[in-house]
Design brief:
The chain contains 7 helices and 4 strands, in the order H-H-H-H-H-E-H-E-E-E-H. It has helices at residues 4-17, 22-37, 50-67, 72-86, 93-108, 125-137, 169-184, and strands at 110-117, 141-148, 155-160, 163-168.
């Protein structure tokens, strides 16, 4: 079983050991990952092993030279991506990038918050949520994203880090239905 969190931790540790910038590493990993995923089927996205990894590394290094990026983070990222190709795990790169961002945010005191609402919120809801989360969690910064989800019927869902607060009417109705089903079967 593949564990993206372990790969992300190894990547972050490699960046840290070389004194490389986390931000640069994550940005470069995202850029290179999207490029590798766009390769034709006969390339690393479709096959794995030493030959594919060597060919991909050669192409990646040529591409990096063209965009003139040369940092410790770049070298670590290339080696990391090539290893993923060799081990046939490159298909999980998006999960690894997500876990890498979580680890980076944890190290820097940034907390990710996403909200779903049944109706468009009032103007200052975002700032109120960010301030409340900062106060409750002690986070230095809050990254916030929000969207309307009409499937909720009413209420909201709030994801703070890995925790989900579901105050939607849909959930309340589901709980009520389950309760009535259980109680109705006892009569």
């Amino acid at each position: 079983m593949f564990h993206p969190g372990k790969w992300a931790a190894a990547y972050i540790n490699s960046l840290e050991a070389e004194g490389a910038s986390y931000e640069d590493g994550i940005d470069i990993l995202g850029i290179l990952a999207s490029w590798v995923k766009s390769l034709p089927a006969g390339m690393p996205g479709g096959i794995f092993g030493r030959t594919a990894a060597e060919k991909a590394e050669e192409m990646i290094r040529e591409g990096i030279t063209e965009i003139n990026v040369s940092t410790a983070a770049c070298e670590i990222t290339i080696r990391f991506l090539v290893l993923m190709i060799k081990k046939n795990t490159v298909r999980y790169i998006d999960e690894v990038i997500g876990e890498t961002r979580k680890l980076y945010n944890k190290k820097t005191g940034v907390l990710s918050v996403s909200a779903e609402y049944a109706l468009p919120p009032d103007e200052d809801l975002e700032s109120r949520i960010k301030e409340a989360v900062k106060k409750q969690s002690g986070a230095l910064e809050v990254e916030y994203s929000g969207r309307v989800n009409p499937d909720l019927i009413g209420g909201y869902r709030l994801r703070i880090g890995d925790e989900l607060i579901d105050a939607s009417i849909r959930l309340q109705l589901q709980k009520l239905q389950a309760l009535l089903t259980v109680d109705g079967g006892n009569q």
